[in-house]
Amino acid sequence: MGEVLVDVQGVHKSFQLGQTQVHALRGLDLQVQAGEFTAVVGASGSGKSTLLNLIGCLDEPDEGRIVLGGQDISHLDDAARCTLRNRKIGYIFQAFNLVPVLSVAENVELPLLLHDDLAPKDRADRVAQALADVQLTEFAPQFPDRLSGGQRQRVAIARALVTRPALVLADEPTANLDSETTGKLVDLMVDLNQKRGVTFLFSTHDEKLMSRVARVVRIRDGKVAEGAA
Ligand code: ADP
Ligand code: MG
Against a cut of 0.85, is the pTM above it? Predict the structure, then answer.
């Protein structure tokens, strides 16, 4: 067994929705080893986004602990949280979340602007490498609205990888894509996982994707039903 990169221990998370309390995660346990490619599969409302948001430090658990690379990230202050998000984690969202007034290359460069230890030349090299990894080199000067959905999501993958994060979180990255594009995108992520050794944790409600992925964790009603460790 390799090194444990993500360790989710007995995590609970509730949301107040008007008068009702929604118990989104109910004592969830999950371990991810460095270098793994894992799919979190579950129906809509099962708690996938809540889980990824907690691991990605976008929110805090009510109970339990989340350890990332040996560091307890359950309750960090804003500064620590920002540094961690920018240095250790890459995000890919369902809606791509590209900045429309920036070119493809500028979108990919964006997270590197917080890395003031990198010389401009090194930044440019990183951007070029990330775009080559997702086969979009010739699209560098284009704006996102000129691109197809699959291409936009590849830009988002390049943006997630450009900081060389330990972990890439992708929350239903294929939900807005047709099935052929979806298959290609998952194959690309698997390839990058193998080639670059990046740990991927992605969520989907698409059962068809399971055959493409080495490890499937099934979540149901805020708990892992299958494949926790
Ligand atoms: P999934 O991503 O698997 O569809 P979510 O993690 O988004 O599931 O949601 C799990 C449950 O928590 C759902 O019942 C959802 O309505 C609820 N929930 C998630 N986020 C919020 C929120 N910010 N406010 C209220 N309820 C929420
Ligand atoms: Mg979701």
Answer: yes
The pick from 8, 13, 14, 15 for probing ligand 1's pocket by mutation, whose C-beta has the most ligand atoms within 8 angstroms, reads: 15
Secondary structure of residue 206 in the 3-state scheme:
coil
* CA angle (3, 31, 53) in 5-degree steps: 115
For residue 218 and ligand 1, the question of a CB distance below 6 A is answered with no
Predicted local distance difference test score (pLDDT) of residue 210: 81
Handedness of CA 175, 65, 221, 213 (dihedral sign): positive
CATH topology of domain 36-60+76-214: Rossmann fold (3.40.50)
* pLDDT score of 211: 83
Query: Looking at the DSSP assignment, which residues form a beta bridge with residue 199?
Result: 167
Ligand 1 lined by 24 (C-beta under 6 Å): yes
Q: Encode pLDDT of 176-199 as tens digits.
A: 899 999 999 999 999 999 998 999
Low-confidence ranges of the chain (pLDDT < 70): 1, 229
Residue 111 CA to ligand 1 centre (angstroms): 27
Q: What's the pLDDT score for residue 116?
A: 87
Beta-carbon contacts of residue 160 (< 8 Å; ≥ 6 apart): 90, 91, 92, 168, 170
What's the pLDDT score for residue 212?
86
Take atom 26 of ligand 1 and give the residue whose Cα is closest: 15
Other C-beta atoms closer than 10 Å to the C-beta of 109 total 20
